[in-house]
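Table S2 (continued). Query chain:
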Amino acid sequence: MTRAATVPPAGEVRQRRTGLLPRLLRHPVGITAVLVLAVLYAAAFLGPFVYSASPITTDALNTTASPSAQHLLGTDELGRDVLARLLYGGRITLTISIVSMVVALSIGSLVGALAGFYQGWTETLLMRLVDTFMAIPSFFLILAAIAVLGNAPAVVVTVIGLGFWPQVARIVHAEVSKIRNFEFVEAGRALGASGSRLIWRHVFPQALPAAAVLTTLGIAWSILTETGLSYLGLGIQPPLASWGNMLQNAQTYFWVKPMLAIYPGAVIALAVLCFNLLGNVLRDLTDPRSRF
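Corresponding output:
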């Protein structure tokens, strides 16, 4: 006796046909967040080609200067161009946040997918490892790793990614555990498909939207983490600029030149807000009950 196939509601069919990107473009909050982030990334990666001032050249005779035609946002405590440092610092901060989340997504997806699909002792072993990492406060784990390994940019990227992978593994594990019992997986097993093929070609793509939503939120977390490390003097080191070490340098001059702290603080807050809003919108759009 053959079991009848379940026919999805018409609204869900329309959602699948419409696609995620067109629905995101119809969402006012989502499109605003995407546009603002596009402007930030364009400014960080293309701005230095347009605004040619050096972010590291000092001028002891022109410190904490007001905005002018030569320095559009003025200069900092060492006479360096503030706008140039914002642009180059954004390139470093935004790159670190994206690459660190690629690290977190890669490790978390691998662990979560293997644990959710194979279950048994594999699930027990891997998920207890995840629980162990989640029991340790991420920021203190990152501080300990940097104290041992140093604070080179590659180390900062890796340790920030290692601080977030357990959350990704949790989400992927929950999604894969649910999807592995679907009929198309059973059909693949009956046709002789290998476990690795079933995981990476059929099961994991179904879990990827939920992981992508969490990763979007994780990028905001990684921006705050990198800026926090740089503010404490443990992240990106001078003469390289990052939004975090710009805040650190500005704290002494806050009452004399508050804009030195306001400029990097504002772009950090704007980037984090937009990534959080984008994550919330993607979560709503991946919900079958969403009206968008």
